[in-house]
Amino acid sequence: MQQSVSRENFDQWMVPSYAPATFVPVRAEGSTLWDQDNKNYIDFAGGIAVNALGHAHPELQQALQQQAARLWHTGNGYTNEPILRLAKQLIDATFAERVFFCNSGAEANEAALKLARKYAHDHYGPHKSGIVAFNNAFHGRTLFTVSAGGQPAYSKDFAPLPGAIEHAVFNDLDSAARLINDETCAVIVEPIQGEGGVVPAEPAFLRGLRALCDQHNALLIFDEVQTGVGRTGSLYAYMHYGVTPDVLSTAKALGGGFPIGAMLTTEKLASSMGVGTHGTTYGGNPLAGAVAGKVIELINRPDVMDGVGLRHRWFIDGLNAINQRLHLFKEIRGLGLLIGCVLNEDYSGKAKQFNLAAAEQGLMVLIAGANVVRFAPALVISEQEVKEGLVRFERACEAVVKGASV
C-alpha cells in the first residue's frame, strides 16, 4: 500500500529550493489536470514549455511502453536504435549534421559551451576562450550555464564563477559589438528570452550577431531550449528568423515530458569532441529516444505548425479583450505559443499574485520575472480549453484588481 502524501510533506522532506503550488496534481489528459481533491485546472503552463503535445498523449504512451518492454538503458558504451533514429530525424529537419544527446537544457548548453572552447583551443589556441552572453538571459543552473545566464540573482551566491564570460544588452547590437573580438570563442543567445520576460530578438540583431561571429571566427550558439520543437510555429525559431547558428541546444518539448536534451551542430565542429572529451550516463538512452522520436514525428508537420499560429491568435485576441476591460498590461508579446503579458506600472512586481490567483480559479500559468505573466501551453491545446482557461484567467485578474483596490 502506497504511503499517503500531501503538499505539506514537501516542506518537511525536500530541499527548499522550490516553492511549489499549494495543490498536488495527480492525473492529467490533454491540457486539463486534476489535483488530490479532484479539482480541475486548465494548463497554460505546459510544464514550462515541455508538454508540447499535452498530457498523457496516447501515441507517446505507446512509444514509451513499447520501448520499456524491449530495452531501457545500457550506458554510453553502447548505442541503440531509437536514439540513432532520433538523431537522423533532427539532422533531416535542421541545419545539423551531428547530434549529442543529454538529459536537460542546462546539459545541452553546457555541451555547447564546452564545444565552443574546445574547438577554439584546437584551432586558434587557449587565448580564444571568451564567451559573450546577454543580460537577463537564462541558460540553465549548472555553474557554467548560470554564469552565462545574465541574471546575477541566480549566480551571485555560488562564486567564484567560471571566468571569461561577458554580458551585452539584448537586442542592442552595438553593445554586443563592443564585447565580441578575436578572443571570443562563442556568442550564446536565446531567439526569445524566456525567463527574462518573453522578449523576442529583433531580426536585425540576430543577423548582426551572425555577421560578428563570422568576422571574429566565433561560434554562434542559439539556446532553443524553450523556443524549440514548434513553440514559435517553426520547428526551431532560427527558421523563423532565417539566421542559422553554428550550434543549437534543445530540450524541454523535445521529449514531450520525458527528460531529454540535445546539442545540434555541424560535422566540422563536432570533430573537436573526440572520444572521452564529454559524456553523460543517461544521455541518449532508448526510452528518451523512443519518446522524442514520436514527438518530432507528431509535431514536425504543417498542420501542427499552422495550428500554433491559429492558437496564438486565440490567445492574443482573448488577452487583448481582457486587457481592454481591466487595463492590466502595457504589452502582450511573444511568438507562437510563448506569450508574455507585461504588467503596467499599477501592477509592477505583482506577476506572482496573478499566478496564485489563477491557481485559485483552476488555471496554471507561469511568470517570467516579477512583471510578466507567461503562457506556454500545449501546441495542440483545444479551442474549448483555451476559451475556458481565458475565462478563468479573467476571473483571476479581477480578483487581483479587487485585492489591489482594497
From TrEMBL:
Cofactors, names only: pyridoxal 5'-phosphate
Source organism superkingdom: Bacteria
Keyword terms, alphabetized: Amino-acid biosynthesis, Aminotransferase, Arginine biosynthesis, Cytoplasm, Lysine biosynthesis, Pyridoxal phosphate, Transferase
Location (main, coarse): cytoplasm
Principal EC category: transferase
Residues annotated with N6-(pyridoxal phosphate)lysine modification: 252
Xref: InterPro entries: Ac/SucOrn_transaminase_bac (IPR017652), AcOrn/SuccOrn_fam (IPR004636), Aminotrans_3 (IPR005814), Aminotrans_3_PPA_site (IPR049704), Class-III_PLP-dep_AT (IPR050103), PyrdxlP-dep_Trfase (IPR015424), PyrdxlP-dep_Trfase_major (IPR015421), PyrdxlP-dep_Trfase_small (IPR015422)
Binding-site residues for N(2)-acetyl-L-ornithine, renumbered to this chain: 141, 280
Gene Ontology cellular component list: cytoplasm
Subunit and partners: Homodimer.
Annotated family: Belongs to the class-III pyridoxal-phosphate-dependent aminotransferase family. ArgD subfamily.
Record-given protein name: Acetylornithine/succinyldiaminopimelate aminotransferase
Protein encoded by which gene: argD
